[in-house]
Each structure stands twice: as C-alpha cells, then as structure tokens.
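Re: that chain you flagged

S.,

Sorry for the slow reply, it's been a week of failed gels. I finally had a moment to sit down with the sequence you sent. For the record, here it is as I used it:
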Amino acid sequence: MTPDREGLGRTALVTGASAGIGMELARVFARHGFNLVITSRRAERLVALAEELKEKYGVGVRVMPADLARAETPDNVVAALERDGVVIDVLVNNAGYGVPGHYRDTGWEVQRDFLQVLVTAPCELTQRLLPGMTKRGYGRILNVASVAGLMPGSASHTLYGGAKAMLIKFSQSLHSEQKGTGVHVTALCPGFTYSEFHDVTGMRAQMERMPKLMWLSAERVAEAGYEAVMKNRPISIPGAQYKLITALVRLLPLSAGHHLGELRSRILARGKRP
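Prediction finished late last night. Pasting the structure tokens below so you have them in one place:
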C-alpha cells in the first residue's frame, strides 16, 4: 500500500506500541508515511510489528525496548535518538496500565511506578522533545488519556482517573502555549476499548458483562486520535456515546457526580449491567 504524503520524511515515537491502542496508532502513522520509533517492554512484539509495518507500508521502523517505570528511561531514549541523529516529529504518549484494588491495599512502589509511567514519563518525553519541534516549526503530540479523566472518581484503580485528568489538563495547556508554532497537541480520551488492558488488570470478566454499545475498537480510537492531532484539536472523545456521557457529567452538580462515581464502582465490582 502506498502511504499518503503527510508523514514522508518525518518520524513518530510511539510508546506502549506492543498491543492495543498503541499498536493501532503505530499502524495509522505508518499508513500515512511516518517512519517510526516504537517502544514497550515486550521486545518480541515490537519486532513483529516492525516487520509488518516495513513490509506493508515501506517505512523505516526502529525498535527500542524500554521500561518507562524506570526513572532514567525517558532520558535514555531521547539521548539514544539524539546520538543516532533521529529527529522526532511526532510523540505519542500511549504507554499505560491500571492498578486494580483499593489504594490502602497496594504497596507504594506499585503506585510510584504507575505514576512514573502514566504521568512523569509523558511529561519528561514531551519536555525533552518539544523545544526541537517548536524550533523546526512542526510537531504533533498525542497524549492518550481516557474518559476516566473526565468522570467522577470511583473506587479501585484509585490514581487512574487522576492521572488521566492530569494528562488532559496538561494537553490543553500545551495546546494553548503552542498556538502559532506549528506544534499540535491533543488529548485522546477513549472509553472502554477492546485491548489487553483489562486482561493485565484482571478485570476481563467484569468488563465482558458491560453492554456492547459501550465498547470501542482500538482501530477506531487510533483513527480518531490521528485525525484530531492532525487537525490540532485539544481533545478527542471517540464515540457518540462517550461524547454524550461526558457532556452530561459536566452538567451535574458535584454531589451528583460523586454518587455517579459510586454507582459505577458498584457496577464494576459486581460485574453486572446497570
């Protein structure tokens, strides 16, 4: 397949590219002609994806296995790219996961690593790559957040909503700061998406009981994210159902929103439909 010309000569760095939304985002950018740098902890999956993208789209793909839970990783990744003369034009901060259970029942090291991956690493990668993008007059930063960042907090996965809310606010602020520079910044906020996320968190059984209309495909989410960041929209919420839900939540008083969060927690805990 011949790619379009949007990404020819440009390179996108995609974190968490070994599965789910990250993998589909890598495919979307490759289809549009971008060369890729793909990272995750699972090297064998990255290698397989790289071979697929090279063969199908004729783009260059660099595999960089990396664990973003390690504080030194963002600096090491950027330093390696700079050393090899690789210029990053697009940053997709996608790597993430959830920590199920109550906050009181988890160790601090688990929560610390979670914050490193979902908050600190995206901020550091952005800060290290943004000046070059700004200087060159071209850049695309796509932060994969979640509708959870727009919803009331609920029990379990205690820091998840807060981390995603931070990414959303961070993206909105950067979007305002970068106006007129040629650098686009977007927060992608999907709802429930078919991926390995719920297997990793041990929530697959509960999630499978959710109504089918609440689910999105990773391909659909990736397409929405690509379109939004190319058009420089500060936030993208894929799916009419989630646009409606988040709009309604914004109209609720804080007390009602809190009760909604508690109801969501009970539904997920019991694995029943509302």
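What I noticed first: The chain has one domain: 11-270.

Talk soon,
D.
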